[in-house]
Amino acid sequence: MRSMKRKKTEHYDRLTHPLVRENGVLRRATWEEALDRAAEGFRRNVAAHGPNAFAMLSCARSTNEMNYIGQKFTRVVIGTNNVDSCNRTCHAPSVAGLSAVFGSGGGTSSYQEVEDADVILMWGSAARNAHPIFFQHVLKGIRKGARMFAVDPRRTGTAQWADRWLGLNVGTDIPLAHAVAREIIHAGLHNTTFIERATEGFAEYAASVEPWTLSAAEQVTGVPAEAIREMAHAYARADRAQLVWTLGITEHHNATDNVRALINLSLLTGHVGRYGSGLSPLRGQNNVQGGGDMGAIPNRLPGFQDILDPAIRARFEAAWQAPIQPRYGLNLTEMLEAMAEGEVTTCYLIGENPVQSEADSLSCVKRLSMLDHLVVQDIFLTKTAQMADVVLPAGAAWCESDGTFTNSERRVQRVRAALVPPGEARDDIWILCELARRLGHDWNYSGAEEVWDELRSVSPAHYGMTYERLAEHQGIQWPCPSTEELEPPFLHGRLWETDPDRRGRPAPFAILRHSPPVDLLDDEYPFRLTTGRRLDSYNTGVQSSGFASPLRRGENIELSPEDAAALGVTAGEEVRISSRRGTVVAPVYIDPALRPGLVFMTMHFPDEVDTNALTIEATCPIAGTAEFKAAAVRIDRLVPAKAG
Questions:
Q1: At what angle do helices 214-221 and 225-237 cross, to 10 degrees?
Q2: What is the DSSP secondary structure assignment for residue 491, as one 8-state letter?
Q3: pLDDT for residue 239
Q4: Are 430 and 414 in contact (CB under 8 A)?
Q5: Contacts of 510 (CB under 8 A, 6+ apart)
Q6: What pTM value is reported for the model?
């Protein structure tokens, strides 16, 4: 077991000039030297080991245009599909589940539809803290009369607004969803017309959920049978219902199955493909959706087009004048494994900080240290950047770049540079093009709009979104194949067509089984640690820790009053938290919203408390996302209790 002492949170200053490593130390360099050094390392490793020895992590906080150029660099300049982003850490299971059922990986509804829904299921989503802008739409819906059900192990701030809180045991989402489905079927509330017309596999699905009676589900999930029944009837009877989820569903070893379990409920009731009824996975960073849409993932080209389709591949090869490997690349999880095996030897990281964001963080550090050549492009000297051979200072995409972002409702919106990057920092696209030029590709783009127009030419879903139209409409949702018209705000309306040809491929039900968390509780590790976000901070704290907040209290281990009493600890007292992978020290915070046996921490202060030293790297076999939500831990006092 590895120990991690508690340290003070660092303040991260902006990167303002390039750095290169010399004699084990990063020193200031000119742009020419840094770019030459970065390109030479890529060239050397590809020459020695082939293009698949290269991996890129693109940036979910940068523009669509940057992500488009980043994945094009990987596929055209290097010749591999090994490109991914932090969507692998959060919503890759949502993309996998939605695309398997409907053919595309975006949420099906607009934010406005939540305001007009009759019932809202917030499942594994602490949106009040993690997605406060979206939660304002939820509140508008509640004020207009919508009933909201919150499914979450913790009684979060979101749950406090709910008509009913269903406090399930961590990792029991599939049994709960199955019990909801069985109750709907037995009550005769399933939408038989929609099921027969638009779906397939219902009989097998109905048989698979049959064992999950309300009482059986109550025993496994901890949710009272009456509460399960109430939510099932409300959801099925609603004219318009929204099913919303976040990382409480996706950060599990069986995450894609969790997503499919929720999609099953929408198919069962017909709550998809029409206004007001749909499925909404909430993205946590400003362009996670857009990064995937632009092809910064290993299995899809821009516009979410499958790499394995020869016709699609041929169209891109003609546009880019370069061959594309007819195979999927490595995702982030697989990249790290390949680094350990010596198969990936060079990596280009843009705006990502896996050293502090990945599960079992010390293993991530070890794997990155095995690389022959690491290039990091960022706005701060993060812990990951401190390991690099070359550091390239970039502009802050949200205020120092022109381009577009795509949010959780698939809305593409313009951003415009308001500031000039400080010092010698340069725009991401300029850096990528300079590297491409050194590697034999003379790319010259006059600006972000030229990049966007190239993307539009190869992605039918984005073709109608000129910069002029995006400004005119203050954002447009994809798909938008026409420059003259706009599509409805919801997806998959085809499923309601009476003509089979117009209806297209039926949406399949999934047959799923319950799979408990990998990290088992026992006498040595009796507490279930789940992780999440707080309103005042952002991800690994690199950006948000430099700004004061009256809400911020640093990192804590949050305990129920009952557990605090049993352990004999008081608020503010430091304790040791240990898992089967590592140990950290953190002060106690007593939260009455927690049930006994469940504890909570965040990843916002890794310099102070490295929570990811505790989390487990057990990953979803389909999406590659780790089980951040379910670690087994032990809590020990540092100061012995006083006698008498």
A1: 120
A2: S
A3: 98
A4: no
A5: 100, 101, 201, 205, 257, 260, 261, 263, 264
A6: 0.93
